Amino acid sequence: MGDEGKKDSGRGFPGIPPLAGLTTFDEAMKPGLSVDASVARLKRYHYAFKRLHEIFTARITAEPIYELKTAFAHHAYLCAEHVEALRTRVGEMREPPLGLDVVPDLALEIFFDEILAAPSTELLVVGLYRVALPELDAALARHIAETNPLTDAPSVRVCRFARLELADMIAFGTRAIEALARQGETPWFDRLLKPLDAAGGLDGSRPGSGQTVERVFSTTPYVYDPVPRRDSRYQDLFNQGVNAEAFLYDPDFDARSKSLMMLFKRLREIDVPEMMASIIVETKGKPWGYYRDMTRQLWDEARHAMMGEVGFVANGIDWSKARITHNWSLRLNTECTPLERHAVLYFIEQGLMPKTGKKYEWEVATRSGDPLMATIQDYDWADEVLHAQIGREWYIPQLGNWKEALAYGDDCWSKILSNWVEVRDQGLTEHANWWPEIYLQACRNWGIEPDPKVLAYATTYEGKRADLKTVGASG
User: Fold this and answer.
1) Domain boundaries defined on the chain
2) How confident is residue 12, by pLDDT bands cut at 50, 70 and 90?
3) What is the CA angle 362-368-371, rounded to 5?
4) Residue 95 has what pLDDT?
5) Does domain 20-198 have CATH number 3.40.50.300?
6) CATH code, 244-467
7) Do domains 20-198 and 244-467 have the same CATH topology?
8) CB distance 208 to 197 below 8 Å
9) Is 234 a residue whose pLDDT tops 70?
10) Residue with the larger pLDDT of the pair 2 and 126
11) Residue 447 burial (CB < 10 Å; 0-12/13-18/19+)?
12) SS in 3 state form for the chain?
């Protein structure tokens, strides 16, 4: 064999990519990052995703803009998943104990604290989507470029998957920033770069600036705001004038009209992420699996609200004409402990499991003749089964057993039964019956004459408070 043959030996079968398609021989022959160097960076990405999860979750409840509220729920979930992936990868690299609860750099802590404490929506979205997420994406791209693509292939995979979803998050945020007033953006942007420079970049790949970083917004530690806020499309936030559950189980009403009422129920689920955010933020010291699973449920509930939104749009109906109350999330967040809130959530979920719950709603949707409605309820049902499993995993062990957990949830739910009379007497709402306007819109778009019985539907709750566990019950 000549010298040329020796040079090419071991380069693989002609025409088939070598090295499982991961990389070329030239790239694989570069030393790249050591295990210690790779782990040090991975821990910083983990810290970044964990703090981003915290910020997105903490700002859901008090954020009034619906599109941001739902996006924060989604992005919190994505961050939670990437935290889990990074924890797993670090644990594979000679790292027990992992040390993942250690702040990697005090300047990074200030960086994320400042974004968490941003005093306005505009500054918050700039901090998240114009600074933090792009910096994290650039750090992950650097890791892929600088590590050995063969020896550190599992880390490369984790980084690649994270970058896919970061790109979607950044694209959303870019459009959101364009839609919002940007007064004061440039000084805020520049100020956020200082802690990053002091930390040697988000990944610590360059020398730190050595500059002292001062807190501005986070001089006083951030305090979670539990009061749900909504934008101007939400009106009459204490209105409990239509009992969706009573309508759904009335045999006099047809399946198509009931499906319209179910779309209202889905829209109303925006109060669940508003409430679940408070549980996640105010519950400390749990294993990461708890926060990941609870954030998955939070995201599902936000997705259910958007499913209702899509259903209304598909039927040509202005969903803002429905009165979507915040009474449930407001009272739970301000009158109950985190465990009591979780108890109420679990109690409601268990009520959705029998054949009179989610299965019934799916059957009604199927009979309605609307394939989209059937799809919405099919996936809503599947999600709620998962949520019941999450409750069994994380809520029941705190109470002892299923029976005790369910009884406690019943007691907690009784504490915040509908305050129909009180909010009316306080002048917060007249409990106007908004149903006829929604139903008439639907009938016009369906090309049918309204059913007089359905059109006349209204509910009076006064004097019936003992029977009101279904009023405002989400899910």
Assistant:
1) 20-198, 244-467
2) confident
3) 75
4) 81
5) no
6) 1.20.910
7) no
8) yes
9) yes
10) 126
11) exposed
12) CCHHHHHHCCCCCCCCCCHHHCCCHHHHCCCCCCHHHHHHHHHHHHHHHHHHHHHHHHCCCCCCCHHHHHHHHHHHHHHHHHHHHHHHHHHCCCCCCCCCCCCCCHHHHHHHHHHHCCCCHHHHHHHHHHHHHHHHHHHHHHHHHHCCCCCCHHHHHHHHHHHHHHHHHHHHHHHHHHHCCCCCHHHHHHHHHHHHHHCCCCCCCCCCCCCCCCCCCCCCCCCCCCCCCCCCCCCCCCCCCCCHHHHHCCCCCCHHHHHHHHHHHHHHCCHHHHHHHHHHHHCCCCCHHHHHHHHHHHHHHHHHHHHHHHHHHHCCCCHHHCCCCCHHHHHHHHHCCHHHHHHHHHHHHHHCCCCCCHHHHHHHHHHCCCHHHHHHHHHHHHHHHHHHHHHHHHCHHHHCCHHHHHHHHHHHHHHCCCCHHHHHHCCCCCCCCCHHHHHHHHHHHHCCCCCHHHHCCCCCCCCCHHHCCCCCCCC
Give pLDDT tens digits for 89-109.
999 998 888 889 999 999 999
Residue 461: pLDDT band with limits 50, 70, 90: very low
